[in-house]
Amino acid sequence: MKTGLSAGARALNLRGVLIYPAYLDPPAQAALLADLRAVIAAAPLFAPVTPGAKPMSVRMTAAGRYGWFSDRAGYRYIPTHPDGQPWPAIPETVLAVWRALVSAERMPDCCLVNYYGEAARMGLHQDRDEADFAWPVLSISLGDAALFRVGGTARRDPTESHWLGSGDVAILGGPARLAYHGIDRLRPGSSRLLAEGGRINLTLRVVD
Ligand code: MD3
Ligand code: FE
Q: Which helix (H) or strand (E) holds 75?
């Protein structure tokens, strides 16, 4: 069967982060994007505000039982979009990637959708708002290339950088699950997948 997923794909190891370059071929990327357009139409992108009151440059929405949210009161997962509507279901095209690379036994609770305009970035942080760090996080990159940085479990640990391109998939598991990581910048115009430019990153997580 032709799925657009590269079976047996080779992974790069960046400080324990497994990166599968171009795991999704261009038709599979386009199919995922069409499903994400529907998610964003039902659950519009918003700019979370940090506890320090700064709006993030990355805009976000989510699909699944939970979405990640931040405001002056702090970071947390919430069961509805800030508009009060339940988050849309995680598209089957997205779940297929999780099934192929992580597990067919347990589906993720949250598909966080991050949209980066050409000047957006994400500072070095850990993902630690989930209950069980035994489950990996799976990330899918679509659109313009982004300079990803990953370090260790202490903020001052040395870091390594890698350009994530459209269709790349990363698995953050084991000790890397709690590694500091961030996005330093985009390479605007490096992909034609998104007509408006920029980058979409999906992160699939087991939350509780
Ligand atoms: C390494 N997103 O949403 S994805 C995030 O490209 C986030 O939007 C970035 O960091 C983005 O929290 C990076 C790759 C990624 C995701 C989760 C990780 C790397 C990770 C968790 C632990 C270690
Ligand atoms: Fe993160």
A: strand 74-78
